[in-house]
Amino acid sequence: MFPTEPAAINNGFGALLKNRDFMLLWMGQLLSQLGDKVFFVLMIALLANYPPLPGLAENSMYSILMVAFTLPAILLGSAGGLFVDRVSKKLVLVGANVIQALLTLLIAFSPRDFILFLILTFAISALAQFFAPAEQAAIPLLVRKENFMAANALYSSTMMGALIVGFAIGEPILSWAKTFLGTDYGQEAIVAGLYSLSALAFLLVNFKSEHKTLSDRTAFIHPWTDFKEGLRYLKKNRLVLNAMLQLTTLYCVFAALMVVSIRLAADFGLKQQQFGFFLAAAGVGMVLGAAMLGHWGDKFHHKPLPLIGFLVMAGVLAMFTFTHNLLLALTLCAFLGLGASLIGVPMQTLIQHQTPPTMYGKVFGFQNHAVNIALSAPLAITGPLTDALGLRTVLISMSFVVATVGIWAWKNTRRVLQDVI
Question: Cβ distance 4 to 125 under 8 Å?
């Protein structure tokens, strides 16, 4: 399931701590993702300052704003990857954050027009679609292959940590900014500051080997031709395609869990807005699992980690239906996150190992696109299914699907490896 030669020397996180350029990349990632999460909170908070359009209720305004924020992920996921292959990744990372900072400040000084607010929100979210594949493609340029597992573990931990911390501290930070920096622009200045610090961190990164991954001929290739070339590569390299499918399934489960956790919160006597406790517990488990893989990943080289991860997640989902104790439920969520890390970290590492440098942008763009769609679809259908079938039926069904996908992926990958070898 992880077909790479064991590293002769692998110091886990210790090797990464000595890698100045990677640590700057990591700091930039952390600041940028915190900026994204706090901006999401800011976006909701600012909506109260905008007069509604004629015939538009408040809930409808929230829905339209959410669409403006999520639509770029569906429309531009692959396009961002194609762009990354054609220009400097450093330019994309720095430029995306600088423009996001400027657009955030522009919100503060723009007239209170809801349509303009939607346009600015769409633009800030669209820039993130170029940032994500550039960031993922930058890791193989800065890290030795034997440390890919540790790098991806840290990347996954940071992504989940930013999700937990960003939403948790978003409101207090914005309230503090509003009090001490002023009501006119203080909140926007805080978010713009996070984006600016991220851009500064990326500006200091030295991409020594980046010129080797930029192909001169891509400047003369039509983007549609480039897009089809990426599809052909994925069809040909079934190992990468299989890993991408497993990652997509993983994100589908987490998206469904976001909806289900609202019902779980009510069942365990919590307020519905406290559903974040379950997501936070899963995030803690994922961080712990990623840390374990990052430090001791080479010792698990021959273990079918994704299969174990899928089976753990399937077992946890099934056990939820028989659990009535809140502490036990949170512990199960932590194990769910641990199982997720056994899928996400090795599969992301496998994709980086198997993808040639000239295809980084295309492959990571496709991955970003697939993940964004995977996050959107379950959010739309899980709620109605839960209302129609009941929470227990949905959880049991999810458990069965997750276990089936895990076993299928394991058997399929074994066949692919036999063909490769």
Answer: no
What's the pLDDT tens digit per position in 197-246? Answer: 999 999 998 876 555 545 444 444 555 566 666 677 777 777 888 888 88
For 297-334, b/e burial (b = at least 16 CB within 10 A) is bbebbeebbbbbbbbbbbbbbbbbeebeebeebbebbb
- Which tokens is 335 given? 């194990």
Give 1's contacts (C-beta < 8 A, 6+ positions apart).
303, 304, 305, 306, 307, 346, 410, 413, 414
* Chain segment 37-83, per-residue pLDDT in tens: 888 888 878 887 888 777 766 667 776 777 788 788 777 766 666 67
The answer regarding whether domain 232-421 maps to CATH 3.40.920.10 reads no
> Which CATH superfamily is 9-149+162-205 part of?
MFS general substrate transporter like domains (1.20.1250.20)
Q: Rounded to two decimals, what is the model's pTM? A: 0.70
Burial of 114 (0-12, 13-18, 19+ CB in 10 A): middle
- Rounded distance, CA 318 to CA 320, Å? 5
